[in-house]
Amino acid sequence: MNRFAELLDRLAYEPGRNNKLRLITAYFRDTPDPDRGYALAALTGALSFKHAKAGLVRDLIAARVDPVLFALSYDYVGDLSETAALMWPTSSLAEGAMDDHHDSSPPPTLTNVVTTLRTLGKAELPAQLARWLDELDETGRWALLKLVTGAMRIGISARLAKTAAAALGGKDVHDVELIWPGLAPPYLDLFAWLEGRGERPVNRIPAPFRPVMLAHAIDDADFARLDAADFIAEWKWDGIRVQAVSGCDEHGNIATRLYSRTGEDITHSFPDLLPSLRREGSSEGRLNDSRKPFGAFRQQTFAIDGELLVVRDGRVQSFNVLQQRLNRKAVTSRLMKEFPIHLRAYDLLEDGDNDLRELPFEDRRRRLVDFIAALDDPRIDLSPRVAFATWGELAAARADPAAAGAGADADAIEGIMLKRCDASYLPGRPKGLWWKWKRDPRIIDAVLMYAQRGHGRRSSYYSDYTFGVWTAGEEGEQLVPVGKAYFGFTDEELVRIDRFVRRNTTESFGPVRHVLHEPDRGLVLEIAFEGLQRSARHKSGVAMRFPRINRLRWDKPPREADRLETLERMLTSEAAKSTGAGA
Amino acid sequence: MRPHDILMLDAAGLFCKPGGFHIDPVRPVNRAIVTHGHSDHARPGHGAVLATPETLDIMRLRYGNDFAGSVQAISYGQEIKLGDVSIVLHPAGHVLGSAQIAVTHGGVRIVASGDYKDVCDPTCAPFEVVPCDVFITEATFGLPVFLHGDPASEVGKLLASVALFPERAHLVGAYSLGKTQRVIALLREAGYDAPIYLHGAMDKVTRYYQSRGIALGDLRPVRGMKKADLAGAVTLAPPSATTDLWTRRFPDPVRAFASGWMRVRARARQRGIELPLVISDHADWTGLTRIIAATGAGEIWVTHGQEDALVRWCMTKGLVARPLALVGYGDEDGEGDTVGFSGGESNS
């Protein structure tokens, strides 16, 4: 555990990607099986311990220290595991003389921890965790708590960890990604292959997730370098990016899965979409090879990259509507009826055992068109192209999607996607192949009202801001909170706002600071946001989507900030758009 | 005599009415007693300044000879009278010349400890516990998460990194007064005898330490060095310099920072530190609580830093405690530091 803790600790401070890779690869080289395999599992998020929740850590530490001191410390440190690790009471003898564990048992290895937790009952967990915390030093305690609560957040992506593993055998990360879905911790076969001691492991998962390709945000300056003829444009739909995958296992059983863009299996949330993804049985005669043995199985093998949307009466609904279907524990028939789910296809990654990812987008798109036509299901359709010959025409389409072919669906469009015709489907965010060009956000000027400390990297800084706009109240003009923003500013700006908050606090309520907000004294924040909806939860009656700080208006007196009426007008015009064009 | 009739707050800070003096005033006053030379405690422009000889020397280095109308040097343990008030300075263990100020009047003794630490530091006199009725404590690291550990093992981390990356320069951020000299002394104690390089801003005060008989070994200015020659070497610089353009003269520098704040990971990451070194000139939580108990004081006034937690702890121990709302001292904002031994520098 200590060697792994040391690695996590160093990674947490190391900013450079290459240095991170070197550190992880060196760890894999120096650490024996199975410890290194469990480390790889931890870094790729493949381990989860269902009983170990943040609440357990809280209980353990609460039983050992003054709860008020803990609350103050946690507020300052901003990280539960780290606070608990720092405050965990130890004999002063063990701290500072780490190699001197003569009166306690040796600290656990990573393998001890992982294998013990796998079989340990919920009731035994607290005592076991406490024993380990007693045995480990501060770094070890921190790493253990991060590991078991599954909240490592040390700036290591699963891909980076796989890249580091691949480097052990001089392999490309792509080779590891291909077989990854069939592997399981502690990855003995993977390491054996990487070290030249074994065969290349075979992927046996019938419907594996394929790492998704992502786009860069385009800047005005980028267009000068790009030729419109090289690109295909589509609408950027404001739903959930998904991968619909189907395949057969070795017994011929069909498996169909829906994955989120991060590879999370979300099939169970959308049972109403699954029948539309079945091609066997009803497909007689639709594809030539259905007559061949296993043809049905073969044709049932595919992977579609697309967007989940709610479509009612042929009209794509806004993200606000889709959101009401998400994150529900039970998917009731009423929910499915009220929020009919739909898949809009962007790309075809696999078709009948053929991996299409190496093909140019143009070719994949052509196959996708045929595929969707053959599928012939009302719940699945093709993401239409946006016709354009020049960047000027595309800018016009982006400014007014309704007039550029999207019609009534324009509300569910958040911009334009640009894809190079000749681009292969590459995992991650490769440069220059896919671009996203979002619609201009809405902007208002609001006044900073309350501030709270942030977490993680920003702990101890006041980085969570509640802002408000003016409205007529009982005692004249008053500010009413309309939202919270956590990002959009630089580190330097954060330091300035933080200083402003500290110097202009009028009252503190627990962690919340009331910041001076008078007509002539206070801080104006220019807030950008994507959409607006009515909300009963907010006093102001409106809620913003993706609010962020666009600019700090140190120059602007609060009295000149926007009024609630401005937001209400935006809301009315949005509502008019949806009802006017909809039901 | 009630304690708050002896020491009270006014716009300049802590004021002793019966003695007619301020302690570490933040604006110019007639008569000031100064606990130590950090710029947030020792400011120029007072009518008269009373302090240890070292603190007066450091103020002279920082502000020039005419930093006050008049000065009076008081040695540790020497009693002086101002009106009916008796004053004795005791070592605070914070930096060279740092003192706690024991103020006794009408049978009540209040100790204003300034900044202090209770761990071994070869560059200054060790902290002395002064029994008193009221103890005024700092709370810079007044949270139970701040345990500074053994500074020798932190210096060990630095030396291990130097051995691991001999092709890289090691740039250690440290406050010019106190921390720099302590880190050098710790490196020498660990057996490191190679030349140590210094940013220009630390030169004057470090030479002053040497002139007071503190052995710091071979120290050289970084100015004029060739880039390649700084590979594998240790250089100390004010914290702000370790992240600015100045660092371009170093080969692939490893950025370290010697500070008690480094105990909290997010603090190190916020500053872009790769090698956090938990070395502090302030008492940690254990130190603060141990010293508070050791003074035997029944009443504790808590100033600059994390007052809430320390006040809470005192109350759970049955002590009367209250936060003193002193402003202008290195608090959480006190990480702001400037290049140069010229004021504005903080002392964390």
Structure, explained:
- Chain A is of the alpha+beta class.
- Chain A folds into 3 domains: 148 residues, DNA ligase, ATP-dependent, N-terminal domain (DNA ligase i, domain 1, Orthogonal Bundle), CATH 1.10.3260.10; 223 residues, DNA ligase/mRNA capping enzyme (D-amino Acid Aminotransferase, Chain A, domain 1, 2-Layer Sandwich); 132 residues, Nucleic acid-binding proteins (OB fold (Dihydrolipoamide Acetyltransferase, E2P), Beta Barrel), CATH 2.40.50.140.
- In chain A, 34% of the residues lie in helices and 22% in strands.
- The longest helix of chain A has 18 residues.
- The termini of chain A are far apart.
- Chain B has 2 domains: 198 residues, Ribonuclease Z/Hydroxyacylglutathione hydrolase-like (Metallo-beta-lactamase, Chain A), CATH 3.60.15; 127 residues, 3-Layer(aba) Sandwich (Rossmann fold), CATH 3.40.50.
- Chain B contains 8 helices and 19 strands.
- In chain B, the strands form 3 sheets. A 7-stranded mixed sheet of chain B has the order 7-8-9-10-11-18-19, covered by helices on one side. A 6-stranded mixed sheet of chain B has the order 1-2-3-4-5-6.
- In chain B, helix 3 crosses helix 4.
- The longest helix of chain B is centred in the middle third of the chain and has 14 residues.
- Chain B is globular.
- At the A-B interface, helix 5, helix 6 and helix 19 of A face helix 6 and helix 8 of B.
